[in-house]
Amino acid sequence: CGDGWAFTAVAVLRSMIDLLMSAAVITETEPEAEYRGFKYVYFFFKAKLMDHGLSIEERVTVRRQIDEGIGRLPPAHQQSARDFMFRQRLYGYWFCPEFRRPTDVLDRLSNPDIRALYDTFSGGSHGGYLGLRVLKDEPNRVHPNPRADPRSQHLALVISTRFLIEAMNVRDSFENGGAHRRTYDDLMNRLV
Question: Is the pLDDT at 62 greater than 70, yes or no?
Answer without folding.
Answer: yes
